[in-house]
Design brief:
Blueprint: H1 3-27, H2 35-44, E1 90-91, H3 92-115, H4 119-135, E2 137-138, E3 142-147, H5 150-153, E4 169-172, H6 179-195, H7 201-220, H8 225-229, H9 244-258, H10 261-270, H11 290-303, H12 314-326, H13 347-367, E5 371-372, E6 378-379, H14 381-396, H15 420-423, H16 440-443, H17 474-477, H18 481-495
Helix pairs in contact: 2-18, 3-4, 3-6, 3-18, 4-6, 6-7, 6-9, 7-9, 9-10, 9-11, 11-12, 11-13, 13-14, 13-18
Length: 506
């Protein structure tokens, strides 16, 4: 048998076997899935991750003001923003990515969020981040990218309200460039400018104008921030993919927000240099944005036959490559049916991929196109959306363990979340200071967390669908703002499509 025929049979057999497996698992699910409830919880989660002075509208009441002196040592106001995961550091790189993907969720699914009565909450979650990112930029070329010494912070287990570890502030500037974190910040502000265009035009204009300033800085002074900041960010958020993807990502979002052709020209002129039409990737993450760039640009490529987009049509082919490598047949799938990228916090890749597959599937459906994976292999738009739904359903409880990996959703969910504020008694109930070392008594305890971090998507099970619900295992038990960000858009879509059963775009 020819090699190409053999690979085609393997590809088809893998997808058929996977589909049959998923049907069986879904039949065994212990709960019906309420996508609207999951959507509300996925946005509420961000209130549990807030830093700064909490508003009167704060719904997660076991949290209180924290980080109120952030930036003081650097003579800048850096209060607000989000803690990224289970620690008390404010890392600007993953925070900006979170805001970009949250904003993209609103851009794509604004009507769906509105029908679910969650649009205002989504905008509030975005604005909590963009207000901070705006304050972190000092024109023309200083960007504060982190608050807190991560090495000292990771030696403590204490509530953010009790923090007494160094709140060291770190910046990138012309002598210490950080094109990756600056490019991502530019993308976040540009994407958010679309979100607020109809409701707060002055704020939207400020976001876009600042985005352009930060992008100019990122492009002029090139370099990776983890190279110049060293142990302050590595190995916590090392930019392994470099900064080239963020330059394309930032330019792409500014173009989408402004229709300024100069940014499209930038992509076409610098694409080869920045790795644009090169290798494809099967995930979107806080570090690697290439798959996101491909899908983002494909919207324009699929929607027009204009010559302006001829020079970037390679990105459509690479978006197809993303799909082919992220779908069953080529992707690694656990026995229970979960996309498995490996490493720590696997569900962050599952949620971002689900969002990309739904978004690209809709783009393809609107253009009447499908994905070709070579030979007779390929996928229709509805298959992309169906696989995304299967991944979302797995997270919500349709899996071999019958467990939801979203905290507070369903009747069976993780109880020992690797999260300082959630695992320690709330300052509302125990005002006494909990010391840096004293908090480890709670970290290593087998007791459930006293505070439920509603809506948090944790790292999730391993490649064999095993999950220990062990607070000490951060790779499985730690939540993150970016793991939730893609899920918001996916849940908005499924909540709006007759409980996910009517998959538009098929």
């Amino acid at each position: 048998m020819a090699a190409s025929s053999s690979s085609s049979l393997i590809f088809i057999f893998g997808f058929v076997l996977f589909t049959a497996m998923r049907v069986e698992i879904q039949a065994q699910a212990l709960q019906s899935l309420d996508y609207r409830d999951a959507l509300a919880k996925s946005i509420l989660f961000y209130e549990g991750m807030r830093s700064g002075k909490l508003p009167t509208s704060q719904r997660i009441k076991w949290r209180a003001n924290s980080g109120m002196s952030d930036g003081r040592t650097a003579n800048v106001n850096l209060t607000g923003g989000y803690y990224d995961s289970g620690d008390n550091v404010k890392f600007g790189f993953p925070m900006a990515f979170t805001i970009t993907l949250l904003s993209w969720s609103v851009v794509e699914f604004e009507a769906e969020l509105g029908r679910a009565a969650e649009l205002d909450n989504a905008r509030a979650a975005i604005r909590w981040g963009t207000d901070y990112l705006l304050s972190a930029f000092v024109p023309p070329s200083t960007l504060w990218v982190q608050v807190g010494d991560p090495n000292a912070d990771h030696q403590c287990w204490e509530r953010p309200e009790d923090m007494d570890t160094p709140r060291t502030c770190y910046q990138v500037n012309p002598s210490k460039p950080g094109s990756d974190v600056a490019g991502e910040t530019a993308a976040a502000l540009a994407a958010a400018s679309i979100v607020f265009a109809a409701t707060d035009s002055s704020y939207s204009q400020r976001l876009l104008a600042t985005s352009k300033q930060i992008f100019a800085f990122a492009d002029k002074y090139r370099g990776s921030y983890s190279d110049v900041l060293g142990g302050a960010v590595s190995p916590f958020y090392t930019s392994y993919s470099g900064y080239r993807d963020e330059l394309l990502w930032g330019a792409g979002w500014i173009f989408r927000a402004s229709s300024d052709k100069r940014y499209l020209d930038y992509i076409s002129q610098h694409g080869d240099e920045l790795g644009g039409p090169g290798s494809s990737y099967n995930t979107l993450s806080w570090d690697n944005k290439y798959a996101g760039v491909d899908v983002l640009l494909s919207k324009f490529i699929l929607a027009t036959t204009g010559s302006d987009f001829n020079v970037v049509r390679a990105y459509k082919s690479r978006a197809d490559d993303f799909v082919c490598s992220a779908m069953p047949g080529r992707a690694t799938i656990t026995p229970g049916g979960l996309f498995y990228h490996g490493g720590s916090n696997n569900l962050q890749y599952v949620t971002s991929n689900a969002f990309l597959l739904i978004t690209y599937g809709r783009y393809l459906a609107q253009a009447g196109q499908s994905v070709s994976c070579g030979g007779n292999n390929g996928f229709k738009p509805g298959q992309l959306i169906s696989f995304a739904k299967q991944q979302v359903d797995y997270i919500l409880g349709s899996n071999p363990r019958g467990m939801s990996y979203m905290v507070g959703f369903g009747t069976k969910f993780p109880q020992r979340v690797h999260h300082r504020a959630s695992s320690l008694p709330s300052i509302r109930t125990q005002e006494e200071h909990i010391s840096c070392s004293g908090g480890f008594n709670w970290l290593h305890s087998s007791n459930p967390n006293p505070n439920i971090l509603i809506g948090a998507v944790i790292g999730g099970p391993d490649g064999s669908d095993n999950f220990s619900d062990n607070r000490d295992d951060f790779s499985q038990a730690e939540p993150s703002t970016y793991a939730n960000s893609g899920l918001v858009g996916a849940l908005a879509y499924f909540a709006s499509t007759a409980a996910g059963n009517n998959l538009r775009g098929s």
